[in-house]
Amino acid sequence: MHRYDLTKISDEIQDYAEAVSKIANAEVEVVDVDLRRIAGTGYYKDKIGRDMSSKGYVYKHVIESKNLAVITNPGENELCLNCPDADNCVETFEVSTPILLDDEVIGVLGLIGLNDLSRELLDKNLDNYLDFINQITNFISTMMINYYREEDTASYMEALKTTVSYLSEAVLVLDIDDKIRISNKSAESQLGLDENCQGMKINHSPAGDKVAADGSEYYIDVNGHRKYVVGNILGMENPKLNKILIFDGIKKVKSDLYDLTSTFDTGSIIGSSKETKQLLDQIKLISNSNSTILITGESGTGKELIATSIWKSGDRANNRFISINCAAIPETLLESELFGYTKGAFTGADSRGKIGKFELANSGIIFLDEIGDMPIHLQSKILRVLENRVVTRLGSNKEIPLNVKVIAATNKDLTKMIRDGKFREDLYYRLNVIPIEALPLRKRKEDIIDLTQFFIKRYSNLFNKKYVKMEPGVLDTLMDYWWPGNVRELENAVEFMINMMGPDGILTKETLPKDFALSRNDGKIDSNIRTLAELEKMEINKALNKYGRSTDGKKRIAETLNIGVATLYRKMKQYEIE
Ligand SMILES: Nc1ncnc2c1ncn2[C@@H]1O[C@H](COP(=O)(O)OP(=O)(O)OP(=O)(O)O)[C@@H](O)[C@H]1O
Q1: ipTM value for the complex
Q2: Does the CB atom of residue 300 touch ligand 1 within 6 A?
Q3: Which of 68-77, 112-121, 467-476 has the highest mean pLDDT?
Q4: Nearest CA to ligand 1 atom 13
Q5: Which PROSITE patterns match (predicted)?
């Protein structure tokens, strides 16, 4: 196989051959390097496609030498000596010119005289003829290059089309006039185009970066409609394809950000105790108020669930609920997470800027969980946001008006923190406009019955197990326990029990978690009362022994204890666990 195959453009070569033949008053033939006749005029036309390797001595010489051969004495020339037709050669002259491409011979063009007239013409105008033929061979090699270039482009386009069709982001490949050359399904549906949109002009202009950290924001105008998208425009070094637009609609980008943020539980509050009924009434009363709410209570009492219930029963239910755990985000990042930043606001910041959680929550609710862990310098900033109802991105001085309802939560004693100088008193009063207390489970024991039933149902469904009943005494044990980890601990205990439950579907005392031994022996509370801190320390130590101290180990511990990794580190520090 040769690199260049002249047969691919044989029709065009034949057209040239015919033209040259007329102008030069001679016959023309073109052969490739295998001495196959590609084109031919007059006498040679019928012989196109024939293999000439047994003859064609002159051509062989031209191919090997890469030089032109002018034969004025065909049959007698030394190059004709071995030719079987040398004795009865009908030619009066022959000019054989190599067709060169990249310094490689890809074929030979032969100009052949068959009568004296053409011989005479040649003799008179040899130089002109040679120039002319040179031009023609150059044309042929240019045609060959173009042929491969187009073929390359076609397969390149095909490959690009296939690749693009696999991408979930919207992709448009535009030509130099910003007309669509390639589009994928996502781009078509986002811009409301049909699949035959090739050739349609797309106008795009920067929209100024407001939301996304990983792309620029653009308006795309198509069919008289304007779309607001986030993405990237890649330039291409290609004469036909000019740029690639990769983007997603702003709504999707915002909701992706939102999905990343919202890991909250949106279940409903279970419990029929007097206390829980009161809580539900209170939620109803306040859900439409725009005042700030502070939910206090031990860990696992359902503070976040209360916050989402307020959201769902209020008039902001159709807008966002953005939850941010102030303890889980490193102090250095918390400020930019909350307020956002503009391009190049600080070293290491994404060069395009990013929306903050306050802005993202606009017209909805922001839930500031573990507000007691907020560093004091940020407390004053939060206070300012709450007072002025505007937010300013880091690195910018533009104030963005906010219509956000704030719900904060903490398991810390903020009044004590104020006394210790760790929490700003003015912020506390700003937050504590509507205080809600999430009671510990042991202070609303009736709920244990409802919650146990609720979780039994959830986990037996989840694990596809049939639950029949609970052995007498099991519920008493659960009711008597003091649940330091509150509802979260109860949920974990029930999940464990359903795992342990035999095929008879009966929850026995044996299915209770081992660590329940504190109250398991006789169904009564262990007479040695431990502090919560002691219990937490014990559990963390146990988990460290089981899973080890590696980063992965700690991840698993955090999962098992149902707390965040940041909380685990904080607690290890607090209890001086090495
Ligand atoms: N009354 C309830 N009904 C149903 N599920 C509940 C109830 N209270 C809490 N839960 C569940 O218990 C778990 C812990 O609740 P949540 O995260 O709201 O507690 P929290 O007080 O915010 O905890 P932390 O202070 O540790 O963040 C969640 O899975 C929640 O759905």
Answers
A1: 0.97
A2: yes
A3: 467-476
A4: 488
A5: SIGMA54_INTERACT_1 (PS00675), SIGMA54_INTERACT_3 (PS00688), SIGMA54_INTERACT_4 (PS50045)
